Amino acid sequence: MSQKMKNAIFVCLFVAATAAIVLWSFQNRTRYRPASAVNFVMNTIVEQRVFGKGAEKTVEETSAGLAEFEKLVSAYFPNSEIVKINEAAGEHPVEVSEQTMQLLKLAKEYSQQSNGTFDVTIAPLTMEWNITGSNPHIPDEESIQSLLGLVDCNSLVLDEEAGTAMLEKKGQAIDLGGIAKGYSCDIFRQAAERNGVTSGYASIGGNIVVIGKAPDGSDYRFGIRDPRGDQSEFIGTLALEGKTMATSGDYERYFEEDGVRYHHILNPRTGYPSDSGLISVSVICEDGALADYLSTAIFVQGKEEAFKVMEGQEFQLVLVDKDKKVWISPELKDNFQINPEKQGAYSFEFYGEEQ
Fold first, then answer.
1. DSSP 3-state assignment of 317?
2. Which domains does the chain have, with CATH numbers?
């Protein structure tokens, strides 16, 4: 082989190797380059962080999808379909979109399954307490008893063939606060699937949805907030690959009067803030709407009922009671990492197994 040919082969190999390095570098940067967004939607902060080739498009589609979703189902968004249903209560049915119909159908189904611990028609009570508004107060007993008569999920009439929804009693109203944010996790998940994203997460209020692992192969780990600490404090962390986690607690929205904390999670059976002994409930499963609903219903049900419900189900729990004891599903034993700084303030136990 001539020296001239050797030189030519060397140049070709050098160019090919350089191209491979540049291509790997580009692919690696594309894979690890995050697309992120922080928005305020559905009266909560929504954070997205996504990696990969379709990351930017996923973030854009999720942001747009959540904004459209809010316009349909928010009880506080002018002319939303839920507002129209509430305004027409006891008078006539309202035509709704397929997305709203499916959410209402699921909310009614969960309400019927909850044994009175979750009800999609609790809005008259939440509006009277106004805990999340500008004038939170303790209603008088007569008002509470009167409004309890309007809380009846069976009065929500859904006609899928006609595409309409109606509340049978005048004065009734729908509140999707215990399910809508979890349901909206699917908007992020579906956008990620459409765009081929395999790594990322979104935090929608108290709901976290995770796609795959971090780009370096490590787990995405998220903290469970200390319900008696500030926003930066956590009692432990969990890896959530392919899962959603919803957390409900008495620390999120509340007011105090005469030394008593009145939080926003009302018991549909009593009309008062839940007093089950739990101060925080986290539910981990694949279905965002289910996790959101369960975190509310279990908060109202209490610890003993919660673990009865959990048996044989494909979800896990982390419960914190008012005595600062943390109860953890045994399936999470190799996953849940206790924050050592909280071991003195809290006691930890995997349900059914003494530590």
1. strand
2. 34-75+176-207 (no CATH), 78-102+116-167 (1.10.3980.10), 219-355 (3.10.520.10)
